[in-house]
C-alpha cells in the first residue's frame, strides 16, 4: 500500500508539478523597507526596498567584498504597487518573509495615518509580525544606504535593539505585531528614532505617535527617553549618570528596577502615584571621595540618584502631558486594572484624561555595592 | 439557495469527488488482488521424488539392489559388504562418503561387527528379532541407532548422512547416525558486531546452532520442534521457544504457517521470512533476522519464537515489532544511563536518515521564510549557479551515495573500503566544484548516510533508505505539508501492520506501567520485572522480587 | 492469555476523547473568546466550559451504561421507538460528518494560508482524505493505536511551544479578574462550548470499551487534558498579546508564536512546527468523526462498514467545499457548536429521563468478547 501510495504521489508530481516550489536562489530577499514622502503630487510615497545580495560563487568563506545589499527607491501611490513595480527591475520576485526593519520618515509619518502606511505589510500573509519599526527624522532611503562594513543596514539596526539590557537610553524595539495592536486599539506609543552617522547608524531618542490620529506628533530626546523608561518600567537595565554637589560625575549602574503606578480616580479627578525602586552598583565615581564605604556617603549618593531620576521624570512628564498630550508610558494599563469599568468609558479619550492627571512620583534607589576598590 | 445550486453544478467539485473516491477504491481492489496472488494455491501434482517404495526383504543383496535402483550409482555412496564376525552372516554398510565420521565408523561399528564373538547373551541368533536385539544392545557402540522399515525414510536418512546397516535375515535396516562433515568454525557475527558482548555467531550447521542455544540455559522448558521444509530438498527447520512463556496462539500460528509453506527448495532463512510474513507489500521487516545467539535467547525469553534453518547462519525471530528495530543486545550489556542516551540517539538517527533530505528540500524550495535569515542567505549564496531544482540535486547526490554503498559491498573488502571513501570524497568535491550541487547539499547527504548506518538492524536500515526517497518526493511535491502527510501515512501503515497477530506498533507500551522502561529509554535492569506485554507471554513475571 | 483484543483499552479511550476535542479550536477559540468576552477573564470561561463538558459527559455515560455494549445508534430505538430513533441517528451522522468536514477544511485553509499559497486547496484536501481512508478501512483498532501514538507527541510539542511563549508573557495583561463583573464570562461560554464539541462521540465509543465501568475516569482525564491545554493556550496568549490584540489578529495563536523568536536555534520560527503538529491533530479528529459516521451508517443500513466509508468520503468532501470563504466556515463552526449542544446535552438528558421513567435497561449479554 505504502509503495503504491508513493508511486501515486510520484505520478502526480510528474503530472502537475509543484505549485509552490521555487528555488531559494531565485528570489530577492527583502531585508528592509524605508518609507519617505516625495515631492510629486501624483505619487506621494517614496519607498525604498533593501534587498540582500546573495554571495557570488567562489566567495564562500572569504571576507565579503563590496556591498551586501541593493537599494531600490521607487515612487508610487501604494506600497503594493511599488513592490510589484520592482519586478520590472529585478530578475527574481521579491520575498518579504525575512524583512527585518521598516524605517519611516518623520514627514510622512506625521502626514499619514500609520495604520494605512503599514497596511500592506499587515495584510500580507508572507510578512511576519517580527520586523522592527523605527522612525527617522532623516530620509529613510539615506539611512538604508549607510555604508557599514560587512553589514546590511536594516539588520544592523534591528540588532542594535538587542542592547536594551545595557542602556536605558533606548526604548525597547517595537515589532510590527505590537505596533499593529497599538494602532488598532488607538493607544499612544513611542517608536525609536534612528539617524545616520558617517558610517554607522545610531538610535537617537524616539518619536511619539498619538493613538487617536495614529500619526507622529513629536520627538523625545535621549534624556527624555530615559525618563520614559523610568516611568514605564519597560527597560531592562542600564546606567544612571548624575553629578554630586561639587559637579563630579558619578555613574550608577541599574541592575533592575521596578515602577509601580497607583492610579486614583475620584469625582472625575485622576491622580497617579508612581513609585520607582531601583537596585544597582556604583561603577564610576569621579568625586575622589575618601570614604566610599561609609554609610553616610552611600546614603548621600542614593539621594543624589533619586533626585536625578526625579529630574528625568519631571522633564519627560511635562513634555508628554503639556506638549504632546499622549500617554506613552502605559499608565492606562494600571488604570485599567484598578478601574476596569471606568476605563471602558474613558478608553476613547484616554490621552486627554492622561494629560490632565496629577502625577506624583517617588524614586527609591538602593546601592548594594560600591565596587571592588576600597578607597 | 442559489449559491448551493451554483455550488452543486461546479465541475471541479464533482471531479474532485470522483477522484477522491475512485482512486482509493481502485487501490484497495488492486492491493486485494495482489494479496490474493500470494494466497492462491498451486494445485501441484503430488510429487514423488523417490520413484517407488520397495519392501525390504531378508536378503541383503536384494535390498541393496533395490536401494541402488533408487539412489543410482552416485560415486559418493559407498557400499561395503562383509560377514558378521560371529556367524558369517552377510552384512552391508551403506553410507555417503564425506558425511560420516570415518574413524568412528571404523572403531565403533565395523570393528565390533567384524570381530564379534558369540557373546554371553544367549540369544538364538537364527531368529530375526534376536539378531536385531543383539546388534542394538551388544554389538554397535554408538548412541544414535534406530531400526527403520520405511524405505522412503531410509533413503532420506542415507542421503542426509546416516549409515545404513543391512543384515541378512532382518527385514529392517539399522540406521546409525555418526554424521560429521566439514563446517565452519564459530566466528564473530559480522553484520551485528558489538563492542561488548559474546563474540559468537550462529553457523550453517543447525545442530551446532541448537547446541549453542542449549548451552545458554538448562531450563527444561526450552523446546526445539523440528520441521522439514522444501518439497524436494527437505531441509531441517527448527523452531525454538520456551514452553511456559511463549503464547500458544502465537506458536500455533507459526507452526501453521511453516507447514503451509509451499516451496521446493529453501536456500536461506530469507525465503522463509518472505513466505510466512503477514504483508508482503509492506516496506517494514515483519520478521527479525539475526546471527547472534544472545539476541535469539533474549527474544525467546520475552515470549517470542525463533526459527532456525539448516544451512544458514541467520535465525529468524517472530513476531517483530517497531521497537525491536531500534534495539541492540548491547543496550543491556552496558550501563543503563549511557545506553538510554544511545537508544534515543538511534531514534533521532532513524528520523534524520528518513527525513533530513526532505526537510532540506522543503525548506529550500518551499518555506524559505522558516529558516533564519542568515542561513537562508548562506544557502541562497551556495546555490547560485546550481542548474537543478533542489529535488534533482538531492536525488543526484542520494543516488550516487547509494551507488557507492552498493559498490563498496560487492568489491573485495580492502578495495571496497577505499572505493567507498575515495568515491564519496571525490564525487562530493567534484560535484561542488563543477557547480552541480551546493556544498550544503553534500553536508545533508553525508549526514543522512551516517545516520542511516546507525541502525542496529540491517533490514530496518534498508527500509529507511527506501523511505527516504519517498519522503523526498513528497517534500518536493507539497513541502512541509507533504512531509507531514508522508509521516502520517507511514504511521498509519505501521499501525495497521501486524506481525503474527501482534500489532507492529503497540503504542500502549508508552503508557504501560512496565513496558515504557524499555522503549525510548533503557531503564536499569532491576526495574524490568515483567516481560513486555507486546508479545502476550504466558508468564509475565521475570523476577518476583528484587 | 489471549492475543489482541478488539475492544478499546482505557488509555486508548482517553487518547481518543482528548484528541477529538483538541482540534481547530486552538486557532479559533482565543479570538472568538476575546471578541465575546473582551476582558482578561477568558481563561475562566475555558475552565467553566470544561466543567459543563464534564457534566454532560456524566449524563452521556450514565445513559450509555444503561445499555451495555450498545451504541447510540442501537439504543435510541429502544428508548424512543424506531422512527424517532432512526431520525436521531441520521442527525448524529450528519453532525459527525459536519465536524469532520469542518476540521479538514480548517486544516486546508490554514495550510494554504501559511505553507502553500499557490497550491489548490482541493489538492491539499484530497491528499489528506486518501490517508484518512487508508486508515479508516482498517477499523477502530488501528485508529485507536494511531491516536495513542500521536497524541502524546502533539501534547508535548504543544506545551513546549506555549511555554516558550512565556518569554513575552506579561501578568498585567491577565489582570484584573472579573473587572467588569461575571457577565462577560458567561458570554464567553458559548464559544467554549463549541470548542468542546465532540464529547457526544462517547455515546458510541463507550460501547466499545474493554471496561465500560471506567468511563467516568476516561471522561475526567480525556476532558481534563484538552481543558488544560486550552487553558494554557488562552492564558499564555492573553498574557503575551493582551485581549485587545487578540481581537484584531486573525489567528492569535500564530501571532503569539511569531511574537517570540529564539535566535540561534535551527528552528528560529516555531509556527511551522506547531502547524505541522496541529495538522496531524486535526487529521485524527476528522478520522474519529468519519469513523463514528460510518459505524452509524453500517448499523442503520445494509452497507458494510468499508463501503460506508467510501460513500461518506465523497459526502464529507462535498460538505467541506460548501463554505465559500473563511466567514462561512466560521458560521459552519457556530452551527456545529449549537448542534453539539443538542447532542451532548439536550438529547442525552431527554433520553436518560425517558429511559429512567420507563425503567429501560438492556439485557446483559455476556459474550465475553474482550
From TrEMBL, chain A:
Which subcellular locations apply to this protein? Membrane
Ranges of residues in domain Spore germination GerAC-like C-terminal: 205-371
Per UniProt, residues of the Spore germination protein N-terminal domain are 20-195
Sorted alphabetically, which InterPro entries does this protein's record hold?
A: GerAC_N, Spore_GerAC-like, Spore_GerAC-like_C, Spore_GerAC_C_sf
Q: What is its main location?
A: membrane
Q: Which GO terms describe its biological process?
A: spore germination
Question: Which Gene3D superfamilies does the UniProt entry name for this protein?
Answer: Nutrient germinant receptor protein C, domain 3
UniProt organism field: Terribacillus saccharophilus
The molecule here is called Spore germination protein
Q: Which UniProt keywords apply?
A: Germination, Lipoprotein, Membrane, Palmitate, Signal
Tell me which family the UniProt entry assigns to this protein: Belongs to the GerABKC lipoprotein family.
Signal peptide location: 1-20
Its placement in the membrane is given as: Lipid-anchor
GO cellular component labels: membrane
Top-level taxon in the UniProt lineage? Bacteria
From TrEMBL, chain B:
What are the GO BP annotations of this UniProt entry?
A: spore germination
Q: Name one Pfam family in it.
A: GerA
Instruction: Kindly report the protein's main subcellular placement as a broad class.
Output: membrane
Q: Where in the cell is it found?
A: Cell membrane; Membrane
**Which residue ranges traverse the bilayer?**
13-30, 305-324, 344-363, 421-454, 466-490
Give the way it sits in the membrane.
Multi-pass membrane protein
Q: Name one GO cellular component term.
A: plasma membrane
The UniProt keywords, alphabetically, are: Membrane, Transmembrane, Transmembrane helix
Family, according to the entry, reads as follows: Belongs to the GerABKA family.
Q: What is this protein called?
A: Spore germination protein
Organism whose genome encodes this protein: Terribacillus saccharophilus
Automatic annotation (TrEMBL), chain C:
Where the protein is mainly located, per its record? membrane
- Any GO BP annotation: spore germination
Looking up InterPro entries in the UniProt record yields: Spore_GerAB
| TM annotation in the entry | 47-67, 79-99, 119-137, 149-169, 189-208, 220-243, 272-289, 310-329, 335-357
Protein location: Membrane
Keyword annotations from UniProtKB, A to Z: Germination, Membrane, Transmembrane, Transmembrane helix, Transport
**GO cellular-component terms in the record?**
membrane
Q: Which Pfam families match?
A: Spore_permease
Query: Which Gene3D superfamilies does the protein's record reference?
Result: Amino acid/polyamine transporter I
What membrane topology does the UniProt entry give?
Multi-pass membrane protein
| UniProt record similarity statement | Belongs to the amino acid-polyamine-organocation (APC) superfamily. Spore germination protein (SGP) (TC 2.A.3.9) family.
Instruction: Supply the PANTHER family for this chain.
Output: SPORE GERMINATION PROTEIN A2
> What protein name applies here?
Spore germination protein
Q: Which organism is it from?
A: Terribacillus saccharophilus
